[in-house]
Automatic annotation (TrEMBL):
It comes from the Bacteria. The keyword Cell membrane does not apply. It holds the Pfam family ABC_tran. One of its GO terms (molecular function) is ATP hydrolysis activity. Gene3D superfamilies: P-loop containing nucleotide triphosphate hydrolases. CDD domains: ABC_Iron-Siderophores_B12_Hemin (cd03214). This is ABC transporter ATP-binding protein. Residues 2-236 form the ABC transporter domain. Coiled coil: none annotated. Keywords: ATP-binding, Nucleotide-binding.
C-alpha cells in the first residue's frame, strides 16, 4: 500500500534516454536501490527526480506533486549526489561540509550548525582530516566528504549515485549503516549501486532498470533472483539465502 509519505514515481521520460512507466515507490523510512547495467538510466532517473535533467516527470512526494516545488526547494528536498568526481577547490574538509550547509541556509552559521558539521564529520570518520585540503584527499576520502556534504543538509530524500564506489570494505559498511539510520529516521534513501551484495544486505526495495526502462520493482527478495538478474546483467548467477536470510549473489560467469 502506498502511504502519503512515499516518493511515488508515475512516469519519467526523456527523449531517447528514459521511458519509465510506474508506479515506482520509494517509501519514507526505507532504502531503495536502483540496479542495472551501465547506461541503464539510473543516474538519469535520479537527476530527473532531483530536477537536474530536463525530463518530463510525474511524481509526488508526501502526497505533493514534485513538479509544483520551486526548483531550489526541489533540489534542497531531493538532494542528488553525483557519481564520484573530485575537487580542486581550495577548501578544507571542514569548510566544504560547512559550505554545503551554508548553501542551504545562506547567511546563517549558528552553534548548532557547527555541531551538525562536527557530528557529520565524525559519522563519516573524517575528524582527523577536517583541516586537510580537498585536493590532497584520496578518492575514497573525497567520496566520504561528498557524502558528508549531503548528510549535513538532512534532506527529505537522499539520492546518492554510486556512493560506495571508491570505498574500502570498512567504509562501505560504515556509510551504508549510516544510511540505514537516515532511513530509520524517516528519510527516503535512493541509491544507485553496482554491488549486488551490498544491495541485498541493506536495501528494502529495488528498482531494476535497463535501456531506460524499469523492468521490475519490489522487495529485495522479489527482485534479487536469478530469473530477474541474469537477463538484466547478461551473466550467469547463483543466489542463495545468507545467514541473515537475505540473498547472497555469486557471479558464475558470462
Ligand atoms: N548528458 C547526456 N546527454 C546525452 N545522453 C546522455 C547524457 N548522460 C547520459 N547519457 C546517456 O543516457 C543513457 C543513460 O545514462 P546513465 O548515466 O543514466 O546510466 P547509468 O545507469 O547511471 O549508467 P552507469 O552504471 O554507467 O553509471 C546512456 O546511454 C548515456 O550514454
Amino acid at each position: 500500500m502506498i502511504s502519503s509519505e512515499d516518493l511515488l514515481v508515475r512516469r519519467v521520460s526523456l527523449e531517447g534516454r528514459l521511458a519509465i512507466d510506474g508506479p515506482l515507490v520509494a517509501p519514507a523510512g526505507a532504502i531503495t536501490v536502483l540496479l542495472g547495467p551501465n547506461g541503464a538510466g539510473k543516474s538519469t532517473l535520479l537527476r530527473a527526480l532531483a530536477g537536474i535533467e530536463p525530463a518530463r516527470v510525474s511524481a509526488s512526494l508526501d502526497g505533493r506533486d514534485l513538479m509544483t516545488l520551486p526548483p531550489a526547494q526541489r533540489r534542497a528536498t531531493c538532494y542528488y549526489l553525483p557519481q564520484l568526481g573530485g575537487s580542486q577547490a581550495a577548501l578544507s574538509v571542514h569548510e566544504a561540509v560547512l559550505l554545503s550547509l551554508k548553501t542551504l541556509y545562506p547567511g546563517r552559521v549558528r552553534g548548532e550548525d557547527l555541531a551538525r558539521v562536527a557530528a557529520t564529520l565524525s559519522a563519516m570518520g573524517l575528524e582527523a582530516l577536517a583541516e586537510r585540503r580537498l585536493a590532497s584527499l584520496s578518492g575514497g576520502q573525497y567520496q566520504r566528504v561528498a557524502i558528508a556534504q549531503a548528510l549535513v543538509r538532512r534532506p527529505r530524500v537522499l539520492m546518492l549515485d554510486e556512493p560506495t564506489s571508491a570505498l574500502d570494505l570498512h567504509q562501505q559498511l560504515r556509510v551504508l549503516e549510516w544510511l540505514r539510520g537516515e532511513a530509520d529516521a524517516g528519510r527516503t534513501v535512493l541509491l544507485a549501486l553496482h554491488d549486488l551484495n551490498l544491495a541485498a544486505r541493506f536495501a528494502d526495495r529495488c528498482w531494476l532498470l535497463k535501456e531506460g526502462r524499469c523492468l521490475a520493482s519490489g522487495t529485495v527478495e522479489a527482485c534479487l533472483t536469478p530469473e530477474r538478474l541474469e537477463p538484466l546483467f547478461d551473466v550467469r548467477l547463483a543466489v542463495e539465502a545468507g545467514p541473515d536470510a537475505r540473498p547472497r549473489i555469486q557471479a558464475l560467469g558470462l
